[in-house]
């Protein structure tokens, strides 16, 4: 199965805003996929539905064949989410932040501890594992969000505008690590409103505007058209 099939997905919020007007797209396994669109386009709404934080009002999305509508708990286990804003408790330690995340997925503590070590090492945070998160640099905090998102060993890693307001040095380092995760087999979806960012990283791209997919193509073809 593809990593993701979005089929005529709709979301109308309680206030009547039609954030998604029946969108469809497919992301293949192993892809590094960009979802590009201006503010208000519907990117976060789509990511919210894929990660079971928002309910859809029509259509469906399947993650490796698992329906977010009908098999919500199963679908959640397949996803790792790196949100826009730093949202861990700054007084907690990276090791605990990771282990607690695993607990949320029902992963036994021993396995969680092994994984926390693995991913904190991979993201070059191991020497800070037992320091309070507030002592980490901005780049380290971003990497901690990635390590945390890997704790359930997701098959699909979603980054929701992860570099908004983040300086170039930190962005480069984030992309270095995310590229490594992708090369190791995890499918990655990145949402952004900067084409330049997606351009260097992503093979395929969809552009969303006003809740509609207006382009769905390869990065090469898109760049050739501009
Ligand atoms: P609901 O989904 O029941 O509307 P929310 O907590 O999502 O509840 O939002 C409550 C209200 O806050 C919405 O109806 C909307 O008016 C407003 N709101 C929240 N987030 C946004 C946003 N990103 N853009 C516009 N309005 C928003
Ligand atoms: P993007 O992530 O591309 O900036 P969003 O998915 O956040 O777009 O928003 C799409 C549209 O839905 C916008 O018009 C936004 O104001 C609206 N919206 C987002 N969240 C809510 C909410 N909770 N309640 C009402 N409207 C919302």
Automatic annotation (TrEMBL):
Keywords for this entry?
Answer: ATP-binding, Nucleotide-binding, Transport
> So which residues are the signal peptide here?
none
Q: Boundaries of each ABC transporter domain copy?
A: 4-226
Which Gene Ontology molecular-function terms are recorded?
ATP binding; ATP hydrolysis activity
Question: Does this entry carry the keyword Nucleotidyltransferase?
Answer: no
Please verify whether the record's keywords include Transport: yes
- Per the record, the domain of life is Bacteria
Name of the featured protein? ABC-2 type transport system ATP-binding protein
Q: Which organism is it from?
A: Rhodanobacter glycinis
Its taxonomic path starts at: Bacteria, Pseudomonadati, Pseudomonadota, Gammaproteobacteria, Lysobacterales
Full protein: residues contained: 9 to 234 of 320
